Every structure is written in structure tokens, then in C-alpha cells.
Amino acid sequence: MNGELAFPEPKTVDEAASILRAGGLCAFPTETVYGLGADATNADAVLSIYETKGRPRFNPLIIHCADLAMAETLAVFSPAARKVAALWPGPLTLVLPARPGNGLADVATAGLDTVAIRIPDHPVALELLRAVGRPLAAPSANPSGRLSPTTAYQVRLGFAGRVPVLDGGPCRAGVESTIIRVEGDRLIQLRSGAMARADIELALGAVVELAEKDAAIAAPGMLLSHYAPEALMRLDTEPRDGEAYLAFGAAAAFEGPVRNLSPSGDLKEAARNLFAMLHELDAEGRKVIAVAPIPDEGLGEAINDRLQRAAAPRG
Ligand code: TXA
Ligand code: MG
């Protein structure tokens, strides 16, 4: 992906900020995955996110804020919401009632009366948000339904060099943010993610409920087949001849192509490696990927969620 870009790649935060302020798209790093950013107050800019990703318009975007003051202009924070927001900055998105007249483009929230907000914990993302001075709508920077990118290279590959990317190195969490809807005093997890549910419960001394699988309340974007690599996936299993193997922990010897998410069995390392290794196996043209069992605790919840979506029948 070199020498064929239709524009100069932004080299600095200020260059990326001017693209965004002028209504352009620019991908940027966060601690979870790369986001495809646009000025969330500019309807045309936000529309081009949906076009570029091929994303259905009914699927609202996460709005990224520089700080709590910016977030409070967009949503109404109850005392319960304020407590959870104390975990910001971080890989946590809160779904809150939208503040009327908040200036967000309707398309950014798909016309809902709630808004999904987060303050990312990444120095480049925060510097960019401050430089733009406006909230940024940013879904993961991949064509809709494909794997999320954890490096600038994967963003360029995914969009064939059609969007400028501010390169901030590889993402340290590697899976998307955890999404929690605050409803009265209840905390309902709509998507598992890089902040483990058990850690949130521990930090807040509160229970985080799981959204019912088919509840209308669930995040509209949680389609069953998602995050899909080209290869077919077989989960919780050992590899057969001719397959690639995505291992975890101490793995038995295998002759074929192997990636180990974490030889030491560390779920944080596994989350960080998940999309990157699936991207690699895809790039090598693997047809079937057998995946070792991953413990369903802590970050394993998010890893297994993404693996199940990647393995789901394709529509
Ligand atoms: O880590 C992340 O969250 C990354 C980085 C870039 O911040 N972003 C990300 O965005 O994963 P995206 O668009 O791929 O996922 C956003 C999810 C979708 O499932 C969407 O349906 C849900 O958030 N969502 C957005 N607004 C919502 C709302 N008001 N109520 C419920 N779900 C909402
Ligand atoms: Mg996404």
C-alpha cells in the first residue's frame, strides 16, 4: 500500500485535525482498534463514513470525546452514569439519553434518542480530539462486516488506500470497547469488549447485567455474522490436516500453519493478537482456521464473542 495514495498521508495530529475540521474522513488510532473518524456535527461528513464502510444507516456510531465536559454537552448524565464515567478514559462506551439540541448530526446516532459515547485512552486520539475541538464519530476503520484493524497498515489495506490514516502504531487492547447502557441504576452490557465485565463490576462495586441475546435493547450493530475473516472458522477444537491453527496457551505440536494468541495463556495478550493474527492468516490465504478453546472469563468473554461472530454462517 505504498505510492498509490490519492492524497498525502497526515503526518501530524494537526494535519489530521484540519482534514476532519474541513469535513473529511481520517482514520486514527485508539487503544482498542483504529477508528474511521468524521466530525460528528457535520451530517455530510458522517454520511461519508456509512458510504465508505458500506454500513447500514440504521447502525449508529460511537461518538468520541476529548473530556467529560465535551461528553456532557452531548448526553444527560445521571448520578449512576457519572459513576461509570469515572472509568474514562478507557475502552468503555456508555449509551446515555441524548441531550436535546446537542448539535450531533442525526445520522451519527441513526435518529435514536440515545447516544453512545466514549473518551479513548490513547494519547494520539486525545490530542486529535482536542485539536479538532469537536466530537468525532468513529466506527472501527474496516469495511462493514470485516475484521477490525489494529494497525494503520490494515486500515490502508481494508479501504485500498482510499482514506487517510494517522498512524499511531499498533493498538494495545486489540478488541473494541465494552458497551454499557445505563438505565436508571442498572448497567446493561450491550457488547463485551476490552474492559472486562468482571473488572467493571469490581471497580464500581456494582452488577453489570448481560443484555438478552435478542432484546430490542441490544446494540443495533450486533449482527450475528460480523468481524469475519475470509477463512472459515471452526471453534473450540484441534486442527485437522490442511487447516491453519489459532492456538492459545501450551499447544500440542502441529505441522501446519500456527499462530498462538498467547503461549503463556494470558487473555490480555490474546485480545491484542486476535484480529492481527486473523488478518495474517487471511493474508496467507488460509481456507479454514481451527481455533483452540479460550476460557470464557475476563477478556475471554470479548474474545469468544468475536470468534463466534467470525464463525457464524455468512449472510
Ligand atoms: O472500540 C471501539 O468502540 C471502536 C473504536 C474506534 O472506538 N469503535 C467501534 O465502533 O467499535 P463500531 O461502529 O464498530 O461499533 C459501534 C457499536 C455498534 O454495534 C452500534 O450499534 C452501537 O455501538 N451503538 C452506537 N450507538 C448506540 C446506541 N445509541 N444504542 C445502542 N448501541 C449503539
Ligand atoms: Mg465495527
Task: Describe the overall structure.
The chain has 315 residues and is α/β, with parallel strands linked by helices. The chain folds into 2 domains: 13-210, DHBP synthase; 232-311, no CATH class. It has 9 helices and 13 strands. The chain has helices at residues 13-21, 43-53, 68-74, 79-85, 123-132, 152-158, 197-204, 267-283, 300-311; strands spanning 26-28, 35-39, 62-64, 92-97, 114-118, 136-137, 178-183, 186-191, 208-210, 232-234, 244-247, 258-260, 288-291. It has a 9-stranded mixed β-sheet, sandwiched between helices. A 4-stranded parallel β-sheet has the order 10-13-11-12, with helices on one face. Helix 1 packs across helix 5 (123-132). The radius of gyration is 19 Å and the shape is globular. The mean pLDDT is 93. The structure holds threonylcarbamoyladenylate and magnesium ion. Threonylcarbamoyladenylate is lined by residues 30, 32-33, 35, 59-62, 91, 93, 95, 109, 112, 114-116, 138-140, 176-177, 179, 190, 219-222. Required for the formation of a threonylcarbamoyl group on adenosine at position 37 (t(6)A37) in tRNAs that read codons beginning with adenine. Keywords: ATP-binding, Cytoplasm, Nucleotide-binding, Nucleotidyltransferase, Transferase, tRNA processing.
